[in-house]
Amino acid sequence: MPEHLRLLRDRVREFVRREVIPAEPVLLAGGDTGRLALGRLRERARSEGLWGLAHPAEIGGRGLPLTDYVPLGEAEGESEFGPAVLGSEHLLDALMLHRHARPAVRDRYLPGLLEGRVTPCYGMSEPGRAGSDPSLMTTRARPACDGWTIRGSKWFMRAARADFITVMCRTEPLGVPNSQAFTMFVVPVGTPGYRQVRELPVLGVEDGHREVRFEDVRVPEDHMIGGRGAGFAVAGERLDLGRTLRAVQWLGQARRAFGLMCRRLHGRTAFQEPLAAKQLLQQHVFDAYTDIQAARCQVLRAAAAVRAGRGAYVEAATAKVLASRALCRVLDRAVQIHGAEGLTDDTPLSRMYLRARATRIYDGPDELHVHTVAKRLLKRYAGDPEAEADVF
Amino acid sequence: MPEHLRLLRDRVREFVRREVIPAEPVLLAGGDTGRLALGRLRERARSEGLWGLAHPAEIGGRGLPLTDYVPLGEAEGESEFGPAVLGSEHLLDALMLHRHARPAVRDRYLPGLLEGRVTPCYGMSEPGRAGSDPSLMTTRARPACDGWTIRGSKWFMRAARADFITVMCRTEPLGVPNSQAFTMFVVPVGTPGYRQVRELPVLGVEDGHREVRFEDVRVPEDHMIGGRGAGFAVAGERLDLGRTLRAVQWLGQARRAFGLMCRRLHGRTAFQEPLAAKQLLQQHVFDAYTDIQAARCQVLRAAAAVRAGRGAYVEAATAKVLASRALCRVLDRAVQIHGAEGLTDDTPLSRMYLRARATRIYDGPDELHVHTVAKRLLKRYAGDPEAEADVF
Amino acid sequence: MPEHLRLLRDRVREFVRREVIPAEPVLLAGGDTGRLALGRLRERARSEGLWGLAHPAEIGGRGLPLTDYVPLGEAEGESEFGPAVLGSEHLLDALMLHRHARPAVRDRYLPGLLEGRVTPCYGMSEPGRAGSDPSLMTTRARPACDGWTIRGSKWFMRAARADFITVMCRTEPLGVPNSQAFTMFVVPVGTPGYRQVRELPVLGVEDGHREVRFEDVRVPEDHMIGGRGAGFAVAGERLDLGRTLRAVQWLGQARRAFGLMCRRLHGRTAFQEPLAAKQLLQQHVFDAYTDIQAARCQVLRAAAAVRAGRGAYVEAATAKVLASRALCRVLDRAVQIHGAEGLTDDTPLSRMYLRARATRIYDGPDELHVHTVAKRLLKRYAGDPEAEADVF
Amino acid sequence: MPEHLRLLRDRVREFVRREVIPAEPVLLAGGDTGRLALGRLRERARSEGLWGLAHPAEIGGRGLPLTDYVPLGEAEGESEFGPAVLGSEHLLDALMLHRHARPAVRDRYLPGLLEGRVTPCYGMSEPGRAGSDPSLMTTRARPACDGWTIRGSKWFMRAARADFITVMCRTEPLGVPNSQAFTMFVVPVGTPGYRQVRELPVLGVEDGHREVRFEDVRVPEDHMIGGRGAGFAVAGERLDLGRTLRAVQWLGQARRAFGLMCRRLHGRTAFQEPLAAKQLLQQHVFDAYTDIQAARCQVLRAAAAVRAGRGAYVEAATAKVLASRALCRVLDRAVQIHGAEGLTDDTPLSRMYLRARATRIYDGPDELHVHTVAKRLLKRYAGDPEAEADVF
């Protein structure tokens, strides 16, 4: 790692540990106090030059290459609030608006989004259908005199405090290939017909997820994102970068858990020796270490592939699977080492553990990626039997 | 399985599915409504002859051998409320009072306990110390003019609605061997100096666990359980049976999850075929099936060993580890197969999943049992090198 | 286990340890000395009443139910030569001849087979095709004036010392359902056109496996086994019993390795303590113990299902997979605990290890059984959603 | 990877595939033909500028940094004979002679070693003792009038064709710390009293390993390597580099197996579809891919740490464990995918599989490294609880 990057990484790390982690209880409590605290932290991040580190120069960010961002994002990710405080939380939506929104929508939302004043939300999954197969979505948008009328349900949208919603709708009849059958629209919160149906706590954690209804919601033509039928293409663009960014942040969570685990092993004694002296617990340390290293290496490969601008599905999906597994396993071991206390709210581990489980499902369950990555890898060996596939 | 047992098993299963599972939301909501519903269900169980199936004849139960109880307990365990409704929840405390309490205490609590009117609670673990090594407990009881004075803290006691508490205290000075240094006392709720300090939700699930304080709590001499210094001996008696009973109930939870998983695989489609046709999901079915079968077999071995009255640590601890692992793994797969919905409260899986995690910690973490069981097994091979150890 | 069975088990175990295991080097060396030694051991087994314990009464055996045979077969299996010495090695062929051979063939081979004088061999797999899908077999038998003419190749037949070969041939045209397209024939060794092409050492172990050719081999009509087109039906009959019997013997191998592992842990010291004191090695003991117990339980279930005469595929295939995995894992741990010495011929482990690997492939690779067992289990949940599938 | 390195990597890869792999049968057969073939291949490698790529400039090599060598070494490692043909096989011995031998010994052996004419051999392990704890070695060297007299046994030395042996001996009395109690000596083959006791095939593979005896073998003073009592220090120097180099070559083996596996999946059909279409086999591909990537990443970290000249135990031992596991797992899957054929000599997999198993034992068994690496990692968390350990 070059020196300037290491310094920046240290500053992010120090900021997260000094400012964000101590504020976690307030941020978690939410409400007005929580929102004010979040605002103040963002202000401070901005004044220290740490806001929007992952943002490309094209939208006013620092223009750091994605590979350089990896260590910074890990440091951000040590707190679940790091990305919100430092601005990387909504980078995907910002890029999407920047690239694919019509001027009216872009000008209305992008500046606020980039400053942290506007909250976006993005919806694909629908109740009652396997989210792994997006072609099953039934939310439809039909042309109306002055735009489109949307009808359907979505869930697992972080809609609780959103200002606008980007929603994927079928606009073309069955029979049209999936890649041309869906279109994205922006729905401003407050538009008649849109409502939150219910909260969706995830393993008991209220994290802003909602089930929402669109009951003949009307949006003007210029609220379309990308072209008609280009929904999957626009979504696909989000995915490789999105998977990589989230994997980066999970590494931060895993490292925090690793530190907690190691310190605990020194701090507790059983049967006349510190826990740190017991081989079965040392094994947890070794396994956690190698899980994190392996995931980290793959995340760096994904960042390089995304940065190179070529199709990065294999790298990004593999990184997602490995980082997600590493996170879940490391947290499981950290909880185990903390014993019953690890299950309570006395340490940050219980909440981290609960949030981690969902990562193996969001953005495609592990099983889907195992299947699809392997198919892609195998394809490289399908041709001339003598040709060497350049897989590694 | 003999016919009469199969019939009894079917009746328990049918009762749990007809009466208990549909009442789970009410029972979970708790409060007066929940308590009333629980009382009514117990009444119904009693009137159908299904109350107290695991209770030995010596305390007025059916006297079924423990091995016969295994399939019944599995059926009970399909609902987390099964043991409470059918009376097996507090069997350990009933046996302890029956065998080791002085008459005054026994007569005050045992009848109500056996009828489900009295709620006990049992405390070993203390905040800030490794629960796996009970010799680290610092709660002390000192002789006082008319009995004993107790001072210290306990946690992970299900004290929320308890009528009395059994608490393990050091009564002898350091240096006395652990097996003679601790004594158990019954503390009636309401005794001055006893108080609940705080709730201890476990992975966010409020399950009645509390941290409690004993601030110079005075109990009369006849509130001692067993003899002075016999605390570990009495506790040890609970453990083999306790581990076996809980493992039985976990099997019930695992089977319920297995059924949910299989039905879901038939009920969802992705990429033009039912999920049931996908090999990576079939693998979850196979693995869940073999995990449950292996655990079940070991639970039966533990029940036989406990029933035989010989030291059953190896069998019961192994059963506990295998059943706990099976439960956690099966639930993990069931959640995965349900996708994001499996993380919500829309299915019973999320709550089952959260409660399952603690089983790998309670009653000794896996790592402790792996170590201790292996040591015991190895001892059988330590003598005459030609002698065949009868391990299997 | 009832007393008479335990006594018999002890006698088998004692015989194998006293007579067979010490003779292993001679038996392994083979040649005339090996064959003579084998004959003498068989004689002794017969004189001690331990020959043919698994043989049903219908072919002159003891008629022990299969479930009773399990502990005896484990004891046999401790030596790879146990089944050959005690007569259970060729039980499947004996049953097949008994039930499906024409009198001429039966009378020629069955008596010698039952006495251990005649060596059979059975061939399905063919070079160059996935053995998991038997419909791919291309060896054909065509009607000839006085019987059938067979042409094709087989491999992984233990043909080295066989007196006759049972060979599966396509007799019906493509398009006929698999279940009616294949027929089995007995080919006496020495029939013109039959020859061994080459040895097939398995991981370097010369175990009698051969690739063989049938070049217009002519057999009379009465050398057909079962009916024309009934090849798969007859083969299927062998499979459940065959998988169960082999799994029983693998358990014996695994137990022997377990004993070697435990004794070694007491016998070696590193860093001032016996290996037995190290938690990471204790973990190997625990895992080996639970692997064996789980497999054993499933083998007993398979034996019960086969004995009950109903379709036992699920039970027998699961038993095969679990016993095979247990065997491989236990041997892997035993080798690891023996260090480099475990890789040499100084202990029986290296040979056991090498032979174990093939068990995950023979009789259907694990992946096939995982897929097929899960499909069968899932089918039980496919109907009335309220009906409880009786899977466990 | 910079362009010049990629080109060099491609040349090595191409050479190994064009020259070495086709010669494997001849090289394996050994004897004079094998030795001649090996000599010719070395000549060709030298003439193509591919000899001694890993050799530092100080001993006349190309001076490539170790990190640059990693991809080249992988390409070498695709054939087990690659390192012998390309000169990296005996790099450790060359460095040891260069740095620690007296001039007489160095001048006698080093030039031939660097040219591939002289074969060294190195011995630590002794029969009957845990090799993981070198302090248990009992081979002793005692001062004699004109040098030293060595007595003891060693095994797992590749002594079959060695010209000289480097042997670790206790020279100081018990009680002296291990780090000062052992000394290394060079013993020329042919010295009276030295003899090979027996071959030690490893899982049946004759790989040149021998048990040897030193019966009062006399060596002059200048045959000492390093200083008196410095045996462990000199050995330690070999270890980090040695583990890294071998791990690099294992990656090459794993990649070759991966390619074989993928091609086979395209080349076989079962149940009307190519094996490549089956999810359970795709999973093998995914798992093999991620195992190799994770190991490779760690090997690069180890190479960087060794190159940096600081203590690289954690990185090199972790790399050794991960590369060894990856190799074993990938080969296990490749064999499984090849079915019974994978167990025969028809593919290179069976021999690769057999050789792979030993890697989990040589140079310290996995269990030892898990324990020691974790202890080292934990130490970094032992101090100031607020200090951030820089582990990742």
TrEMBL record, chains A, B, C, D:
GO biological process: fatty acid beta-oxidation using acyl-CoA dehydrogenase
Name recorded for this polypeptide: Acyl-CoA dehydrogenase
Domain Acyl-CoA oxidase/dehydrogenase middle: residue ranges: 121-217
Domain of life where this protein originates: Bacteria
Source species: Streptomyces caatingaensis
KW Transmembrane helix (keyword) present: no
GO cellular component: cytoplasm
Pfam families tied to this protein: Acyl-CoA_dh_1 (PF00441), Acyl-CoA_dh_M (PF02770), Acyl-CoA_dh_N (PF02771)
Oligomeric form and interacting partners: Homodimer.
Location of the Acyl-CoA dehydrogenase/oxidase C-terminal domain: 229-378
